[in-house]
Design brief:
Elements (H helix, E strand, L loop, with lengths): L6 E4 L9 H15 L5 H5 L6 H12 L5 H19 L11 H10 L3 E4 L6 H7 L8 E2 L12 H10 L6 E5 L2 H9 L3 E5 L8 E3 L7 H11 L1
Parallel strand pairs: 1-2, 1-4, 2-3, 4-5, 5-6
Helix pairs in contact: 1-4
């Protein structure tokens, strides 16, 4: 591994853009199609987890058991519906400062990765105009579900950066705790403190230059 390499690895939903409304609408439509009652609590349980885990959460909340074949059919319907909904995504759907943060990372020589639980992360990045700035999109199917740090480790290895040279930009407290335990530097994004090394309300507020200079001083 090239120890002089620095990397910035971003979560997608909640950090660079928000697709939560579209995810929840596609789950709502799929549940209605297959006769699964849903609630606000069950929809919340589908956030930031892989599709199969999200469906299990919906079924558990509804007290319903479903055969494997029907589960696959429901998830296929959900994914197709989600693809329909994200067709309308455009660069203005990226959060303010998202494009600038990635562009600044690239200008400073950082390699850029995405560690999202979504199987459609590459498509979303393309729609919102960020794909050209990204070096690697980790496949969530090849890592344990978040908040495991495996997907970040996968991205970090692909980018060639050691843990102490890796900046992870996240909006989940449990995820941040696991990343810090793996000796990666964390930037928390959101309204509430998440236990990160640095915290900002939005990616727009993050000063990449200051963070990189700090890491280089640490060696």
């Amino acid at each position: 591994m090239q120890t002089g390499v620095f990397a910035a690895i971003f979560d997608l939903d909640g950090v660079l853009t928000s697709t939560s409304v579209r995810h929840e609408q596609s789950w709502t439509d799929a549940a209605a199609r297959f006769g699964v009652p849903i609630s606000e609590a069950s929809l919340q349980a589908t956030r930031s987890v892989p599709r199969a885990s999200a469906l299990s959460a919906l079924l558990d909340h509804a007290g319903i058991k479903m055969a494997a074949s029907e589960r696959e059919a429901l998830m296929a319907f959900k994914n197709a519906r989600y693809h329909q909904l994200i067709e309308s995504l455009q660069p203005t759907d990226a959060f303010p400062g998202a494009h600038a943060a990635l562009a600044r990372c690239r200008k400073l020589g950082l390699r850029i990765g995405i560690a999202s639980a979504s199987m459609n992360a590459a498509l979303v990045l393309e729609r919102i105009g960020l794909q050209p700035l990204v070096d690697f999109v980790a496949d969530p199917g090849k890592a344990a579900a978040k908040p495991s740090g495996e997907i970040y480790a996968l991205a970090r290895a692909a980018l060639g950066a050691p843990p102490q040279h890796t900046i992870c930009i996240e909006d989940g407290a449990a995820m941040i705790a696991n990343l810090r335990a793996a000796n990666m530097y964390t930037i928390g994004i959101g309204d509430k403190p998440l236990g990160a090394d640095e915290h900002f309300t939005a990616v727009f507020d993050w000063d990449v230059t200051t963070t990189l200079a700090h890491l280089k001083r640490l060696g």
